[in-house]
Each structure stands twice: as C-alpha cells, then as structure tokens.
Amino acid sequence: MKVVVIQGPNLNMLGVREQQIYGPMKLEQIHAQMKDFADKNNMEIEFFQSNLEGEIVDKIQECYGEAQGIIINAAAYTHTSIAIRDAITAVAIPTIEVHISNIHRREEFRKENMIAPVCASSIVGFGPFGYHLAMLGMSQIMQEVQALQAQQAAAQQQQA
Ligand code: DQA
C-alpha cells in the first residue's frame, strides 16, 4: 500500500518561516518521521513539495492507479484552489488534509477551505504532530481497504 505526501507552497520554508506559528521543525525532519512510521507499518511512502498549483494537480493525477492514499497540506492553495479540489475528486483516492496551524483560529480568509469537503479527514492545529496523526489515520484506512478487498476476493472465489 502506497501513500503519497504532497506539500504545498512555502512548506519548504518550515523551520525558517513564522516559527511562532509553524514551529522550528524542518520539512525534512517531518518527512523522516513519516518515513520511519511507514517503514514500521509496511507502507510505501513518497514525498513531494511544490510551490506551483499546476505541479500539485499533476502530482495528484499521477497518484491515480499508483497510490492508495494521499496526505496533503495544500498550504495557501487550500483557501483558493478549485483545481486541486477537482484533482482530488477525480482520482478518488482516500485523502487526508493536514494543517500545522489551526486555520480556524487565524485570519478570516483561512476559514475558506476548498479541499476539506473532498477529503476523508482534516487534521488541524497539532503542529508537525498532525502529520503523524495523518499517518495513523491513513494506516487505519488502508487496513480497512485491504480487509474489504480480501472479503470481496473470498466472495468471488465462493461464487466460482
Ligand atoms: C497551512 C495554513 C495555510 O493557511 C497557510 O497558507 C500555510 C500553512 C498550515 O499548515 O497551517 O502555508 O496550511
């Protein structure tokens, strides 16, 4: 089971940008922890960061037929991007969105969220720990999908 982690604009600046909001951890450190979790839980994992909306759309489309789960922090595009929302809907892969900060407690414009309605779940305000929670959630979703597939395969065998 493969999960693709997609990070939006300015998240490559974690550890530098607005530490009072996002904390001191760098993106590479967050990804190292996620990789560790994936290795321990038999999950394949790939990381992608882009500052460009179209590249994020392309990456989501590439997940089709390749990945069984997406974890995305669309960053500022969360509040504006119908294109990213449509891409998530198009591939129909279980998607969890993460926000390091609590976007509901910040500026009004951050309350607008294009992505959340098409995601399985949203994790906000836990700092970088939110990515670990997303991994836990994703491993649960993947176990449920695998159990369903095993049930379907057993039912098909009985019919044959
Ligand atoms: C963010 C919240 C967004 O509003 C902001 O534009 C970001 C980061 C978060 O993780 O808290 O870049 O997605």
Give a written overview of the molecule.
It is a single chain. The chain is α/β, with parallel strands linked by helices. 43% of the residues lie in helices and 16% in strands. It has a single domain (2-159), classed as Rossmann fold, CATH 3.40.50. The mean pLDDT is 96. Strands 2-1-3-4-5 form a five-stranded parallel beta sheet, sandwiched between helices. It has helices at residues 19-22, 27-40, 53-62, 82-91, 129-159, and strands spanning 2-7, 44-49, 69-73, 95-99, 121-124. It is built from five helices and five strands; from the N terminus they run βααβαβαββα. 1,3,4-trihydroxy-5-OXO-cyclohexanecarboxylic acid (DQA) is lined by residues 10, 73, 75-76, 78, 99-101, 103, 110.
Give the SSE layout:
Elements: E1 2-7, H1 19-22, H2 27-40, E2 44-49, H3 53-62, E3 69-73, H4 82-91, E4 95-99, E5 121-124, H5 129-159
Parallel strand pairs: 1-2, 1-3, 3-4, 4-5
Helix pairs in contact: 2-5, 3-4
Bound molecules: 1,3,4-trihydroxy-5-OXO-cyclohexanecarboxylic acid.
1,3,4-trihydroxy-5-OXO-cyclohexanecarboxylic acid binds next to loops.
